[in-house]
Amino acid sequence: MSINTISQKLAHSLEQLKLLQDQGIVALQSKILERGDRERLSKHGFIREIMRGWYIPSSPDEQMGDSTSWYASYWDFCAAYLDERLKQNWCLSPEQSIQLHIGDKTVPLQLLVRSPKGRNKPTSFIHNTSVFDIRSILPNPNQLLIVDNLRVYSLAAAIVHCSKNTFVDRPIQMRTALSMITDASEVLVVLLEGGHVTLAGRLTGAFRNIGRDLIADNIIKGMDAADYKIKEVDPFKDKASFNFDRREVSPYVNRMRLMWHAMRDDVIEHFPAVNVESINVDDYLTAVEDKFVSDAYHSLSIEGYRVTYELIKQISSGNWHPKQSDESKKHLDAMAAKGYWDAFRQVKLAVERVLHGENCGEVFEAVHGDWYLALFGPSVAAGIVKQSDLAGYRTGPVFIRKSMHTPPSREAVRDMMPALFDLLIAEENPVVRVILGHFIFVYIHPYFDGNGRMGRFIMNLMMASGGLSWTVVPVERREEYMQALEAASVEEDIVPFTRFINSLL
Fold first, then answer.
1. Could you write out the DSSP letters of every residue in 468-497?
2. pTM to 2 decimals?
3. 32 half-sphere exposure, CB direction, 13 A CA radius
4. Are residues 87 and 52 in the same domain?
5. Does residue 228 lie within any of the structural domains?
6. CATH value at residue 457
7. Among the four residues 197, 228, 285, 404, which has the most C-beta atoms within 10 Å?
8. Range of the domain at 468
9. How far from chain centre, in Å, is Cα 406?
10. Per-residue CA distances from 358 to 51, 278, 353, 433 (Å)
11. Cα 371 from Cα 381, distance rounded (Å)
């Protein structure tokens, strides 16, 4: 068979795959692809098998063991697979329904599902993930919703029916969910419909814990009017670190604020205070300048660019002229290095402002857009990056390679970034600003690209605000760095990341 014939057949198979993807089909059953197309796409890495008879789209450049395509497809795949196998007669558990209601699409190791057709055993997927379908009757139809094609308990029903241990084990998620309830009637309907006296007492205490006394009082009054006497019990281990503004119902903002307050004590405990002598601004800025070559090499290498010290030195000296070489002008790595130099100079100006006493959070809010424009300006000029990508925050979903954390939606980004600025502006501890400024920014992932480099720039701006020296994250410790960020994003454990950054000083 000629090479042209092979290419034509592969092109035909790709056309069939594109038609399915254009219809929004992510979970690919064997029966919807011709055998030849299926085998050809699988051989060349354009689809991968999740379990017998089920596939997802993938990228041919994915290496063995790479989980990116699976984590990116996970929720869509589960929705389609469960609909097919359980004939749309299923829903997620109350606890995992809450996870989706608050916008947390972290991939769980095991997805818990309820269905009258449940088999009471797990079904294994790839990368140690599975779904466990419990044989159980479903709640009343008025307590069910569809969120992103997933069948879930309504928010109020999920809060009522989740286990009491969830309040202790997942306090951030539960407080975030409670903050989304604006009126007692939302949960009272569920409580009264089922005569849930004990659960009413638990929720009364939970709402009072987060400062929503009016809702708590109205639950008591509503149950009392139906002749139910309840005993109020706070299901949380401790009091909420702040009261929730009843007008702030964005789950993304509330969850981020809860994470910040929950994590800051761990940051302070595991990042001992550093005694900093008085700073000479000129000497500090000279030291920053001296670290550029090393910082650029390591930061770009962490992101997978292949750059050399020589290229970086040439660019920073001003002796690099891309117009002299068409090949250089179109070279992604060279453009990234040039953009890093342009952005570094912008960051250095911001550092100078902070060293002269300006609030680091306010400076960051004012100039972070300039950093991003500088970072990708050369790539736009070379035609590598679309000009529209520099318009601001991302306009669609983004996935982090090999991470179980799914960054928030584009709408959530626009709520979360102003809240991040506010947290940085108000935070008094410079170490907390260093650690959480970097982590929360990459957790939000507000741009399609460049988030890691921006996060490390933020970290060093916050370093300056505490008189700490510019710090380079070495590429040799990339795996440790990424695992620490993953632990913070997926497990809400900031300690590994705190210890990692502290070890670099």
1. PPP----GGGHHHHHHHHHHHHHH---HHH
2. 0.88
3. 15
4. no
5. yes
6. 1.10.3290.10
7. 404
8. 252-305+341-366+394-504
9. 4
10. 56, 16, 6, 15
11. 16
Helix (H, G, I), strand (E, B) or coil at 300: helix
**Token code pair at residue 380:** 């736009």
- Examine the domain organization and report whether 301 and 362 are in the same domain: yes
User: Does 180 lie in the same domain as 226?
Assistant: yes
Tell whether 54 and 100 lie within a shared domain: no
- Total domains in the chain come to 3
Helix or strand run (H / E) with residue 210: none
**E strand intervals along 238-356:** none
Task: Give yes or no for a contact between 103 and 412, defined as CB atoms under 8 angstroms apart.
Answer: yes
Q: Which residue has the tokens 């419990």?
A: 134
Q: What is the DSSP letter of 117?
A: T
Exposed/middle/buried for 114, CB within 10 Å: 0-12, 13-18, 19+? buried
94/164 same-domain check: yes
On whether both 246 and 269 belong to a single domain, the answer is no
- In 10 A of CB 422, how many CB atoms? 14
CB atoms within 10 A of CB 147: 17
Q: Given 3-state DSSP classes, what are the helix, strand and coil percentages for the chain, each rounded to the nearest 5?
A: 60, 5, 35
**Edge-to-edge strand order for the sheet containing 121-124?**
91-92, 110-115, 130-135, 121-124
- 414 Cβ neighbours under 8 A, 6+ residues apart: 393
Sign of the Cα pseudo-torsion (201, 206, 209, 212, in order)? negative
DSSP letter at 395? S
Q: Which amino acid is at 500?
A: F
Spatial contact of 274 and 462, defined as CB atoms under 8 Å apart: no
Closest by CA position to 349, among listed 318, 374, 376, 320: 374
Sorted by sequence, the CB contacts under 8 Å of residue 242 that are 6+ apart come out as: 211, 257, 261
**Tokens linked to 109:** 């190791």
Mind giving me the DSSP string for 28-61?
A: EEGGGS-HHHHHHHHHTTSEEEEETTEEEE--TT
262 shares its domain with 240 = no
Which two structure tokens, joined as six digits, stand for 229?
């006497």
* pLDDT, one tens digit for every residue, the chain (505 residues): 455 676 788 888 888 888 888 888 889 998 898 999 898 888 888 899 999 999 999 888 788 788 999 999 999 999 999 999 999 999 999 999 999 999 999 999 999 999 999 999 999 999 999 999 999 999 999 999 999 999 999 999 999 999 999 999 999 999 999 999 999 999 999 999 999 999 999 999 999 999 999 999 999 999 999 999 999 999 999 988 877 766 666 899 999 999 999 999 999 999 987 776 788 999 999 999 999 999 988 888 888 766 566 666 665 666 655 545 444 444 567 777 888 999 999 999 999 999 999 999 999 999 999 999 999 887 766 666 677 667 789 988 888 888 999 999 999 999 999 999 999 999 999 999 999 999 999 999 999 989 999 999 999 999 999 999 999 999 999 999 999 999 999 999 999 999 999 999 8
